[in-house]
Every structure is written in C-alpha cells, then in structure tokens.
Amino acid sequence: MNEINISLFRGINDLGFEYPDLNPIIVFIAEYTVILLALITLMYWFTRKTKHRYMVMTAGFTFILAEIIGKFVVSKLHFNYQPFVELDNVNQLIDKTANNSFPSDHTILFFSFCIVFWLFNKKNVLWPILSVLVGISRIWVGVHYPFDVITGALIAIICAIIMYNLIGRMQLFTTLLEVYEKIEEKVWPRKNKGRHVNR
Questions:
Q1: Residue 192's pLDDT is what?
Q2: In Å, what is the CA distance from 120 to each residue of 73, 145, 177, 194, 197?
Q3: What is the pLDDT of residue 167?
Q4: Could you tell me the pLDDT band of residue 190, with boundaries at 50, 70 and 90?
Q5: Is 112 within a domain?
Q6: What element of type H or E holds 191?
Q7: What gap in Å lies between CA 94 and CA 96, rounded to an integer?
Q8: 138 lies in a domain?
Q9: Domain total for the chain?
C-alpha cells in the first residue's frame, strides 16, 4: 500500500519538474484559493437568502464534523510525515511544518464546503472540480501524499451528505438562524423575508 502511495505521489509531484511554468498556478491553488473560498462563502451568507444561509451553515458544520473525525479519530489510526520530510528529491513548493499529514486538513476544508455547495446546486460542477484541483495541488507542491488527500476527501464527502440531510430538518439549526436573523434585522433591516429552503 505504501509503495502505491509513493508511486502515485511521484507521478503527480514530478509534474512540477516536467512543467515548471505551471508551478506558480499550482502554488496559488494550493495556498490561496482558501481566501477565495472564504470570500465566496461570505458573499453567499450576505445575500441574505435562506437557501444560501442553510448552505453555508451546512458547509460549516460539515467542516467541523469532518475535522473532528479527521483530527481525533482517523489521524490516530495512522501517522506519516509530509513527503518532503520522508522522501528525497521532492518538488516542495511551499513551506509547511513537519507533522502528521494524514489526513489532509486542507482537503477536508475544501471538500466540506465545495461538496455541500454542489449538493445545494448540482448544476454547478465547478465546486467538485475545484475541490479535486486543490487536493491534487497539495500533492504537486509536495506537502501531502495521495492517500492523505483521498482520505480527507472521503471523510468530508461522507460528512457533507450526512449534514446535508440533517441541517434543514433539525429545529436546532432553524432556531439558531432565526435568532441570528432577529439580531441582524435590528442592525440591517430587510424588506423581504423567507424561510423556505429550495434544493
């Protein structure tokens, strides 16, 4: 299994040596798309549409659940340092502290949000594509093995499906949103209100 992991890693990471002109683009995807994701998430929230707010809440709670599972359960089952620590001749393009890289936190974050956003609007396939690109980019820049990324993706996808089917049906989340919107309404009144989640 470890040989497959290393072989897959080499196949992706060595692309940085073969196509160095692509490295700046890959570094941007690996490091800075998280800023873009944060801005888009805020934009969705402040459209003040109920569907968008349930979507953001679902993504947020998906990430929390997936990160807890990843950090406190799955990471205890296996340990490996980043490839640039364990292997020679790694194309390391970004700085990273050496620690347990299994599973990939970055992948968990992106798959949590991107898969939830896609579940709420399945016509927009750009979200799953973005999450896959981020996962691949983390291998390309030398900070994760493929199995780190695949495991993180699987955890996030399972949690996304669970939370997608729970959030809109649990009174707790509806109550939390109502309390928030009552406070928001006092500060920033709006004309039209709706409480329907259209999926």
A1: 59
A2: 28, 30, 18, 17, 10
A3: 84
A4: confident
A5: yes
A6: none
A7: 6
A8: yes
A9: 1
Task: Output the domain CATH number for residue 178.
Answer: 1.20.144
Give 4's contacts (C-beta < 8 A, 6+ positions apart): none
Burial label, 196 (beta-carbon count in 10 A; 0-12, 13-18, 19+): exposed
Question: Tokens 């798959």 identify what position?
Answer: 111
Chain segment 28-62, per-residue pLDDT in tens = 999 999 999 999 999 999 999 999 999 999 999 99
Q: Give the CA distances from residue 66 to residues 33, 69, 107, in Å, rounded to whole numbers and listed in that order.
A: 20, 5, 10
Cα angle 66, 36, 65 (rounded to 5 degrees) comes to 10
Residue 84 phi/psi, 5-degree rounding, is -70, -15
Rounded to a whole number of angstroms, the CA Rg of the chain reads 19
**Residue 133: how many other CB atoms lie within 10 Å:** 18
Q: For residue 110, give its domain range.
A: 7-187
Nearest to 65 by CA among 136, 166, 178: 166
- Residues with Cβ < 8 Å from 90, sequence gap 6 or more? 13, 83, 84, 142
CA distances to 9, 91, 102, 104 from 14, rounded to whole Å, are: 8, 7, 21, 20
Least confident of 23-27, 91-95, 167-171: 167-171
